[in-house]
Amino acid sequence: MGSVPSENRRERKKLDTRQKIVKIGMYFFRKQGFDSTTMEQIANEVDISKATLYNYFPVKESIIGDYWQGNIKEFKFQILEMIQLLPDTRSRVQRTFTKAAAELFKSKEDIYKIYLSYWLRNLNNQSVNERLRSGFEDIFTMIIKLGQHAGDVRKDMSVELLVKYLEVLFLTVCINWLSDPKLFPLEATLAQTVSLFIEGAGLGSRKSKTKNEGEESAQGKLL
Amino acid sequence: MGSVPSENRRERKKLDTRQKIVKIGMYFFRKQGFDSTTMEQIANEVDISKATLYNYFPVKESIIGDYWQGNIKEFKFQILEMIQLLPDTRSRVQRTFTKAAAELFKSKEDIYKIYLSYWLRNLNNQSVNERLRSGFEDIFTMIIKLGQHAGDVRKDMSVELLVKYLEVLFLTVCINWLSDPKLFPLEATLAQTVSLFIEGAGLGSRKSKTKNEGEESAQGKLL
DNA sequence: TACAATATTAAACGATATCCAATTATATGT
DNA sequence: ACATATAATTGGATATCGTTTAATATTGTA
């Protein structure tokens, strides 16, 4: 478990309590839902006082944040490696989407739901949002940068905006899927979304906008 | 003000109190922020008991919801008319975005932040969402349908999905702007987002779009 | 051991929301 | 106009919960 042993006992204990809180907290969140789990309940189960709990996690939601961060780390590492081997932006996005869906949601659907609502809840909270992020930001940033460099992603937009766009598209698919799996089957919708991201919703020729060539010759196809 | 007089006095009075609550509530929200305004304060100022207040608005946020709904109605009417006069999907989306942004954020921004996060929070809550909606749904639906019919919007994606994307894109731009106006200036970002939605992020020729080729039986047709 | 830094805690706080029995206002039938 | 039923309002008590505070206990270190 604790791979990096902290210097002194105090630190070790703190880390231990911290992990215990996250573990038990997540257990309750899963079992009875986020809102119906009280801080007191968690504190009691961990066998610390509520105040101590707040010393570790200043707001309830941050317990999820902690869990999520730990979870996403390995995923991020794997995907960042994989991405560089793929030939183009489309396949990179596609791969990221499906892998994320498979690993993060499929297995832990309920948790992600909680995390999503946490994320949404704090969209308007700058400080929290700063530390929080979706976890995908780094991945998407790399994808966009690679794409812009290789030339299959437009350069007339900031990396930040494109990244946000990707995040939001992905998020939407997930929310839709969670709220209505039949109407929005995960795999299919993700595939469509990749296409939407790359090619857009429009069918008309690329007029005015793009400075780069208008390459709409291949347009007839819609599919 | 009260253009549609209700049948009996009781209903009239109810409507009156309701409006009074919203008016005073919004006043406080603007003046001291949402969180620092208590239900008790509102009740006192409206001169009703807290219980009555809760009888009208079961949760604090719903006061904002009410305000929002009243606000969006006229807007919707105007935009739906305007839209049909515009030549293509791009201009329709563009116009809707800019007008919506101008309209919605003309007053104190914080309020909408709260409402937006309220809305987002309940995105996957069917029942709440039913009453809530973004208010844009109808507009976007019309835009997409017009576009698909006219042939400048792809038909291999469901109207519902495209509408959801539009909704969430718009909200994202707004939220980004609210949280960092310098990094995401409203007008420019909205314009870019429209372009992203229509043309996509890619630059490569439109190759193999998706695997589900079954779709394009009727594809040659329009356009 | 002494003492400063740090961690822990019980208790309190402020707010949302609910519930209730009593009271008041309104609608309706006669 | 009156009586009666129906619905809205009320103050007040209460539960619950997240978060804070101020005092206490523990630990690291000189």
Structure, explained:
The structure is a homodimer of 223-residue chains. Chain A is an all-alpha fold. Chain A has 2 domains: 10-56, Homeodomain-like (Arc Repressor Mutant, subunit A), CATH 1.10.10; 62-201, Tetracycline Repressor, domain 2 (Orthogonal Bundle). Chain A has 10 helices and no strands. Chain A has helices at residues 9-32, 39-46, 50-56, 61-85, 89-106, 109-121, 126-132, 137-150, 159-179, 186-199. In chain A, helix 4 (61-85) runs parallel beside helix 8. The longest helix of chain A has 25 residues, at 61-85. The first copy, chain A, starts with 8 loop residues before the first helix and ends in a 24-residue tail after the last helix. Chains A and B meet through helix 6, helix 9 and helix 10 of A and helix 6, helix 9 and helix 10 of B. Chain B binds a DNA duplex (30 and 30 nucleotides) through helix 1 and helix 3.
Describe the protein's topology:
The structure is a homodimer of 223-residue chains.
Chain A: H1 9-32, H2 39-46, H3 50-56, H4 61-85, H5 89-106, H6 109-121, H7 126-132, H8 137-150, H9 159-179, H10 186-199
Chain B binds a DNA duplex (30 and 30 nucleotides) through helix 1 and helix 3.
Summarize this, please?
Two copies of one chain form a homodimer. The first copy, chain A, is mainly alpha-helical. The first copy, chain A, has helices at residues 9-32, 39-46, 50-56, 61-85, 89-106, 109-121, 126-132, 137-150, 159-179, 186-199.
